[in-house]
């Protein structure tokens, strides 16, 4: 069994590396640049508008008379529930160890261009959404692939491909088992909670929340996601403020490492631009999910009749996830200097970095609590995303079957400890790539649709033709 797992680990390492470098990395950058061009730099030009709409959408009265299941803010929080996970805690640390201190630079660049991609995904998700016989609204990237791409057979193939990748990612990849494992590990190491007990609690909680559908998931995310971000970012800000003098040297290290063309030694000093670029983009995408189409699924359930407004709110997900939360992890780790020590990786690097930064065991406790909460919200967010892939592929099959399978694997993930957990993260990376490929192809086909809708919306908004930016 050990030999099989060793071979599987090596195989997934190779496949993951081959898919991401250079194919998916080039596709993600190309799509981000293309969408930035089509939207005239919407992530820069209309960032303030997006922030204003995000806060406005918290008021249920703004969209109470429009069609949909959840508010735009709840759609954003549901998407963030799936993105602001252990990729922000463990993923950033892993990117720095694997790609050097320059990896976060490429995470930031990926995020800046990825914001326009995320905008397009959210916008198209609402534009091509469906309404079930019971009146519920649903949708996602698979629907804008099938209906938006003019070559219908290609659109159908890409939609099936995407849906299969979504289900795989949500059930077996880093959207499920890796998260429940991180939860169990955090609770065990800091609070001595037995793995089996955590597994049972996760199973019960997942069942209770998922059985309530998107409205219960959104209500859960709406309350917990902002709180967990404030807790984690707050701790990071305290460390940054107390180490302001280190910021120039940290930024210099990040930029220098991001453009190092020749390895000069072992350990972190041996990384080149290739490793920094590959792991920065891969982990950045795993964290923010810009380009893989997942945010289009909760966006489709959002209340409102203006797709561009939903796209602007969705775009904030990448900004919050990578530009804010991942940056906190980056500065805390690099200010600690622990990334130069061998043997530290993932959460095992982030916890002592926060502990040292706060000069208290409270730092490790905050990371552990954040890891557990981030992991659970990611579980719930990805459950709904995977459920949408199941619904597309098996239209007449009761969706509770998928929910049960998801909860079983979430429980199993809490019991799966050791070095072979990397296999699950590799599966997640592979699934992310297989989600990104059909999604990016679709976005290139639909670029003009995004451009025309964006131009029309801002013309109406600027000429005061819209009494409600989310639609009437």
Give structural notes.
With 472 residues, this protein is mainly alpha-helical. It has a single domain (11-462), classed as Hydantoin permease (Orthogonal Bundle), CATH 1.10.4160. Helices cover 76% and strands 1% of the residues. The chain has 21 helices and two strands. It has helices spanning 2-38, 42-45, 47-56, 60-63, 72-83, 86-99, 103-127, 141-148, 152-172, 177-191, 195-210, 213-242, 247-258, 273-288, 296-300, 307-336, 347-358, 362-393, 400-415, 421-445, 447-462; strands spanning 130-131, 137-138. Strands 1-2 form a two-stranded antiparallel ribbon. The radius of gyration is 21 Å and the shape is globular.
Alpha-carbon Rg, integer: 21 Å
Q: How many separate structural domains?
A: 1
CATH classification, class level: Mainly Alpha
Arithmetic mean of pLDDT:
91
N-to-C CA distance = 60 Å
CATH-derived topology: Hydantoin permease
Proportion of beta-strand residues: under 5%
Number of helices: 21
Please state the second-level CATH architecture. Orthogonal Bundle
Query: Based on CA inertia axes, which overall geometry fits?
Result: globular
Content-based structural category:
mainly alpha
Task: Write the topology of this structure.
Elements: H1 2-38, H2 42-45, H3 47-56, H4 60-63, H5 72-83, H6 86-99, H7 103-127, E1 130-131, E2 137-138, H8 141-148, H9 152-172, H10 177-191, H11 195-210, H12 213-242, H13 247-258, H14 273-288, H15 296-300, H16 307-336, H17 347-358, H18 362-393, H19 400-415, H20 421-445, H21 447-462
Antiparallel strand pairs: 1-2
Helix pairs in contact: 1-7, 1-14, 1-20, 3-16, 5-12, 5-16, 5-18, 6-14, 6-16, 6-17, 7-13, 7-14, 7-16, 8-9, 8-20, 9-18, 9-20, 10-11, 10-18, 10-19, 11-18, 11-19, 12-16, 12-18, 16-17, 17-18, 18-19
């Amino acid at each position: 069994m050990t030999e099989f797992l060793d071979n599987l680990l090596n195989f997934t390492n190779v496949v993951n590396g081959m898919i991401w470098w250079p194919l998916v990395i080039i596709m993600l950058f190309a799509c981000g640049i293309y969408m930035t061009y089509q939207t005239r730099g919407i992530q820069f030009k209309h960032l303030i508008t997006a922030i204003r709409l995000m806060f406005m959408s918290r008021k249920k009265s703004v969209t109470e008379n429009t069609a949909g299941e959840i508010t735009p803010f709840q759609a954003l929080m549901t998407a963030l529930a799936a993105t602001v996970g252990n990729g922000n805690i463990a993923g950033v640390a892993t990117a720095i160890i694997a790609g050097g201190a320059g990896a976060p630079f490429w995470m930031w660049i990926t995020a800046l261009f990825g914001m326009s991609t995320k905008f397009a995904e959210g916008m198209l998700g609402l534009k091509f959404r469906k309404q079930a016989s019971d009146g519920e609204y649903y949708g996602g990237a698979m629907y804008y692939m099938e209906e938006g791409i003019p070559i219908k057979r290609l659109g159908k193939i890409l939609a099936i491909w995407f849906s299969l990748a979504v289900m795989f990612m949500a059930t077996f990849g880093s959207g499920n088992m890796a998260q429940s494992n991180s939860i169990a590990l955090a609770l065990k190491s800091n609070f001595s909670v037995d793995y089996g007990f955590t597994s049972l609690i996760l199973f019960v909680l997942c069942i209770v929340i998922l059985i309530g559908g998107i409205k219960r998931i959104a209500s859960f995310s709406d309350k917990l996601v902002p709180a967990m971000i404030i807790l984690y970012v707050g701790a990071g800000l305290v460390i940054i403020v107390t180490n302001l003098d280190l910021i120039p040297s940290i930024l210099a290290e990040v930029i220098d490492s991001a453009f190092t063309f020749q390895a000069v030694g072992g350990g972190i000093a041996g990384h080149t631009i290739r490793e920094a670029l590959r792991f920065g983009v891969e982990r950045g995408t795993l964290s923010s999910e810009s380009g893989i189409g997942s945010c289009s699924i909760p966006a489709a359930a959002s209340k409102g009749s203006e797709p561009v407004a939903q796209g602007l709110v969705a775009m904030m997900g990448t900004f919050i996830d990578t530009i804010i939360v991942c940056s906190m992890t980056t500065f805390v780790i690099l200010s600690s200097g622990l990334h130069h020590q061998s043997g530290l990786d993932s959460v095992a690097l982030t916890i002592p970095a926060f502990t040292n930064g706060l000069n208290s065991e409270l730092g490790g406790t905050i990371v552990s609590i954040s890891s557990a909460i981030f992991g659970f919200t990611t579980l719930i967010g990805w459950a709904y995303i995977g459920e949408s892939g199941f619904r597309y592929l098996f239209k007449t099959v009761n969706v509770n079957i998928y929910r049960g399978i998801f909860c079983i694997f979430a429980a199993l993930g809490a019991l799966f400890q050791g070095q072979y957990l990397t296999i699950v993260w590799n599966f997640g990376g592979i699934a992310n790539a297989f989600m990104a490929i059909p999604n990016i192809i679709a976005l290139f086909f639909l670029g003009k649709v995004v451009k025309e809708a964006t131009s029309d919306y801002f013309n109406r908004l600027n000429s005061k033709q819209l009494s409600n930016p989310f639609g009437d």
